[in-house]
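Late entry, heme C complex.
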Amino acid sequence: MRNHDLVFLKHFSMVIVFLIGLTVALILLGVYINSQQEPEPNPVAERAMAERVRPVGAVYAGSTGAAAQAAAAAAAAAASAGQVAYDGTLDGSVIYANLCGACHTAGAAGAPKLEKAAWATRIAQGMDTLNKHAIEGFQGAAGVMPAKGGNPNLSDEQVIATVQWMVDNLK
Ligand code: HEC
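Prediction complete; structure with ligand written out below:
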């Protein structure tokens, strides 16, 4: 009876060991087969890539092309129309009256009034420096001159014309 038990135990353990080995072998086989598989394409990644390699512009040819170009030009003109300050005037007196004078006429916030005494040392810096300070803005001892007087839609030319007008009209 005891002997039978021992034999049974021996065979049973062998079966268990065999099954464990079979399990490990099947797992390894599964991993191997899976690694041979082509990965499924990811639709999100595919869309992102198509977006990245999309051409920047489109080609318009013939009459559709001419119409599209005319529409684009009209849209650009309409968009820029609102962005030119004071109708793009290069008349310094107009820009000064509408914008710069708010500070410079009364000397608000430390702005130099249009008086020769207030401008002598400033003019001595040279017109280029004055223009640069008016265009880019300037923190001086007296206060802050905002870039383009605070209106970014002014063109550099308009600011330069206004600075020239101010310097020409000192009292
Ligand atoms: C918000 C008020 C304000 C407005 C608006 C303003 N300025 Fe000034 N501006 C100043 C102040 C303040 C200074 C003096 C800064 C300092 O020297 O400390 C100054 C200085 C200047 C100077 C002298 C810079 C230098 O180097 O000494 C010029 C040129 C000038 N402004 C041009 C203009 C023009 C052109 C405009 C309109 C487009 C304009 N400013 C609008 C406040 C203003």
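Residues 1-37 form one domain. Will revisit in the morning.
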